[in-house]
Amino acid sequence: MFKKISVFLAIFITGLFVYHGSYVSNAQNNETTIEKIVHTLNKQHVSLTEVSLYAREEVKAVTDQKTFYSQAKSIKSNFRGFKWEVKRERDLWKAIGTRKSEDVNEVILLTYAIDEHSNAYISYHVTGQGLKEKNMTHFQNVFQTNYEKIFLSEPIIFSCVTGEINDKMESVLSVEIQDLLRAFNAKPVESLVEESFTSVSAYTGLWKEALQTKKQEMNLQIALRKTRMGGQTTIVVGTPIITSEY
């Protein structure tokens, strides 16, 4: 009887570990791209300062100034909670809608270029500052809700996370880049190395979105910049391209 109970407990405990491993694996697979970036950077003890999501698609309904104004009027009507401005900058018409809350900033931008191409685009950019990992759900819900309202197709979502590393050991940027590549299980494709700035384009299997470069697929960019004083390093991680400028 005792042996039967022991065998049963052994099977139960083994099953429990298998279930737990499967549960953790499924939970990780259900993470969005930006959640995976935030989670990975937190494990690397990066102090996050800003997260952002961005998407854009072509607006084929806009073919001239009249249809631009019509489209802008429709968007303004659908997003009354935004502050709107319509203006012309040389050969580019813009309708800009902005909304700011305590920790999330949103920008809807409709553009129409008056040139031989006459292309029109609409983009949606959301940034969050000082967000903790637990607040990411609200941030993503804000983005996803309007993403589904704004776009007719399902354009690629670009993710970008900015943070800081307090580097008391004054380690070399190339070493920190290698640590981050290992954390993302990524293989480098291209890199740029300077004294106080280093960036690398890489490919990781953590998410599917990718861009085809001349050499191979790329879906991760990491940039590090050393500040002159304080031994602080600014880090930006983006996928599939970094949407910030330095």
TrEMBL record:
Upper classification of the organism: Bacteria, Bacillati, Bacillota, Bacilli, Bacillales
Identification of the protein by name: TATA-box binding
SUPFAM superfamilies recorded: YwmB-like
InterPro entries in alphabetical order: DUF1779 (IPR014794), YwmB-like_sf (IPR036209)
